[in-house]
User: Fold this.
Amino acid sequence: MANFNIDSKKARTYDAIVIGSGISGGWSAKELTEKGLKTLVLERGRDVQHIKDYPTTNMMPWEFAHRERLPKEITDANPIASRCYNFKESSAHFFAKDNEHPYVQEKPFDWIRGYQVGGKSLLWARQTQRWSKYDFEGPARDKFAVEWPIGYDDIAPWYSHVEKFAGITGNKDGIDTLPDGEFLAPHDLNCVEKYFKEQVGKQYKDRHIIIGRAAHITDPQQIHLDQGRAKCQHRVICERGCPFGGYFSSNSSTIPWAMKTGNLTMRPHSVVHSIIYDDKKQKATGVRVIDANTKQMMEFYADIIFVNAAALNSNLVLLNSTSSRFPNGLGNDSGVLGKYVAFHNYRASVSGEYEGFLDSTTDGKRPNSGYIPRFRNVYKQETDFLRGYAAGFGANRNTYSDRNGLGESLKSNLHETKYGNWSVGSHMMGETIPKESNYVALDKDLKDPFGIAQLKISVGYDDNDEKMIKDYVEQVSEMFTNAGFKNVKSHDGNRNPGNDIHEMGGVRMGKDPKTSMLNQWNQLHACKNVFVTDGACMTSTSTQNPSLTYMALSARAVDYAVKQMKAKNL
Amino acid sequence: MERRVALKSMAVAMGAMAGLPAWASGWSKGTLPKGRLLSADQSKNLAAIVEAIIPKTDTPGAGELGVGDFVQKMVKDCYDSKAQASLASGVSNVDEQSIQRFGKSFVDAGKDQKLQILQDIDKGSDASQKAFLGMVKNLTIQGYMTSEYVMTNITHYEMIPGRYHGCVPVKKG
Ligand SMILES: Cc1cc2nc3c(=O)[nH]c(=O)nc-3n(C[C@H](O)[C@H](O)[C@H](O)COP(=O)(O)OP(=O)(O)OC[C@H]3O[C@@H](n4cnc5c(N)ncnc54)[C@H](O)[C@@H]3O)c2cc1C
Ligand code: SF4
Assistant:
């Protein structure tokens, strides 16, 4: 029997464990396995294999019983997920269901989750803008949060590394607030977007309109073909999973790549409960897992552990990892674990119409849109709020038909489509300030269906956010009006924090172990063989979409971890 | 058409359709689930109403394309109980009007008689009947415009355009 136990422990021992298989976990797994480490990826959800498990990917619009609307039974049971624009008939199976995965909202917070192999990488909108030096220098300059322990130059090579593999389309725009990357051929801006770009360029010296950088393969390179991925076909139904691998997801890219090395073991249905800390060895030795099917607790062991469960779940895992050395959560000597959570503010939008270019329209579909890099408070403090916002911008030409009448007259009206004016629109992407009072913690009483304490989320807007919303509306309305757009209207969607799905922080990086959890290598200051490289590690949020940065940080941290391991420092 | 068939068989080959959650299962005229809101007679009436809203000309009308079933399914699955009650009572009401005015059930009324009844509701002062007609008309337009027939033969839906051009001349009409 004793022998049996030893064997079984051996069978459950790996060189590395990665918790979570989404965007960051997929990258950790790819890099670890490529460097020869036997790696176990633990994923709480079911397996989703590229193409095979995309049930709606080839369905025609008329094949959806409710034409993409969801039955009331489902929206009623999932009020939080239902507030996500992408939760619809063709993609709802990739969202975690509210009632199955409860959490406590001390303040309203829409926690949007994808619990399956691939995580949210199947659902994301694929915008991939690099951060600039101004973003990493922000806290030190503006005196909020703590100083980042790294700068743009530390991460730039890793941006290049992940961009080349993932496949990022974009233009080299030469804007210092939004560094250029390794880009595939850019998507087109359409005539009204180009017109707006010119107008803005003439009227404001530091404001730019560009085509977004997005994780789509516009001209496949050998490295993409080697992954079995092909050119994006502009279907623009990416959230169903793409059979061409036209956009980057863990499922189409990093996970099969890691699998091919022969070093990856993927274990779906494995809900990580906590990380095991060994007091004598003074390091983490493995993780406790609840098998989602049997509800049995089991243990897996490894020399290094990467925590990639997505920002708030990574907080949850660490908070739940208590030991006599760490009674308040793994690595939490500073007491800051779970605190300084921040997010992006997508509340406001501005719309309008343009009466020009009436003899032109667009042809085909574009899985991308225009982008306005941050222009507020970049070089100096110009306003009464801290930091700034980026914005989406897009124009399109819709057709409409007269819906009046009944009978044959209605029928012929419907088939007589006419072009309207161009419509233009923008939405804000504001940086929120990490504050101690925006936190997550374990609920003292409530447990989830696996017997794990529920996460209590207490995150809200503040005065800075309200001022920023006001400024965004004023500035973009002015830019629209100056460009000759008509019928300019602004709208506050009053969405809850979290609905932007860019939640970050709680396990922040920093120079000082007294005020941060992770060092410059995403390594817990107080437990050197545990690395956190998803949104939990972010010291501040910038305005750019965050996932590209999680990819780059993951690859960078693995490189360091493996070197340290080989040097026997872990 | 060719491409569509190819795609469909690709989906089947990949075993894709099999894994569909029940509520996301595909719909076509033949495979509509049977769970209904209306009785068989009321359902026939509804089919006649949608056909009167978008009738057969040199192309099929909404009734023939099964849009009645679509309307019923939408209201049954996606709308609240108030809207469901409005659908049921609205359909009966239309039938009663037909019997009163023309001495026959709505399904059996002539094409012009049917249209007359709906137009009178549209111009009339009965708010609840107007709301009923508005809801059915909107769903009929949606179901018709997104039907396989219209999307393949008339509006030429492209699943895979493979391109985006930001500025092309508007085609003259
Ligand atoms: C509709 C939508 C649009 C978006 N658009 C963009 C965009 O344009 N640009 C951008 O940068 N970002 C975008 N995002 C956000 C992006 O998806 C996330 O930032 C990214 O997926 C985060 O990567 P991650 O690895 O941290 O988490 P995820 O990709 O969510 O993966 C985390 C994984 O961990 C698993 N997990 C969680 N807890 C446990 C546990 N206890 N044990 C085991 N496994 C666990 C989960 O099941 C999941 O598979 C969007 C997201 C959505 C949903
Ligand atoms: S737009 Fe590109 S990536 Fe998205 S589904 Fe289409 S082919 Fe795939």
In short: Chain B touches chain A through 61 residues (CB under 8 Å).
